[in-house]
Amino acid sequence: MIYSSEHFSISHLKPKDALQLNKLLVSNTDRFIRFLPKTLAENRTLESTRNYIQRKVTSAEKRKEFVFIIHDNHSKDIIGMIILKNLDWDAKQGEFAYCIGNRFKGKGFMSDAIRATSNYVIKNLGLETLQILSHKTNFPSVNTAIKAGFKWQCTLKDEFKPLNGTPLDMELFEFSSSS
């Protein structure tokens, strides 16, 4: 476990998380489809989620990508996930992608989880700059970034292409351990 609060805890993704992770992603497909299409595509069935977890565990061992799971402390259910990706060890930089189940949105959990995971990543992995990319209309994600202490940097033109959509400009937020 990397963090625990009154309401939730955060840990590295493990094989035992397969059923609950699949449940979270499948039951929130409509909510996640626009900005997490690849993750959803890799988790359509329980078997595909088991394969996804094995790939992500291996990826973490190779320090290429890390997946953190957010558990509700009362029900022990998985309520969200944070992916640390696009790692550049020379620049000491990485990017977060994240999601939280519909039942838990708007409670401030994700901002707290991003803040806690940022602290963990800086202290334990040695990264210095963390990024979040969000579309300007994804107000919950923009608010999460700001509340977690990330600062808006710029708009990246045509940065993200949603399924069957035209490329979208994305807002870049950064958190630096030196600020």
UniProtKB/TrEMBL annotation:
This is GNAT family N-acetyltransferase. GO terms for molecular function: acyltransferase activity, transferring groups other than amino-acyl groups. Belongs to the acetyltransferase family. RimJ subfamily. It comes from Gelidibacter maritimus. The keyword Transferase applies. InterPro entries: Acyl_CoA_acyltransferase, GNAT_dom, N-acetyltransferase. SUPFAM superfamilies: Acyl-CoA N-acyltransferases (Nat). Residues 11-151 form the N-acetyltransferase domain. Keywords: Acyltransferase, Transferase. PANTHER family: [RIBOSOMAL PROTEIN US5]-ALANINE N-ACETYLTRANSFERASE (PTHR43792:SF8), GNAT FAMILY, PUTATIVE (AFU_ORTHOLOGUE AFUA_3G00765)-RELATED-RELATED (PTHR43792).
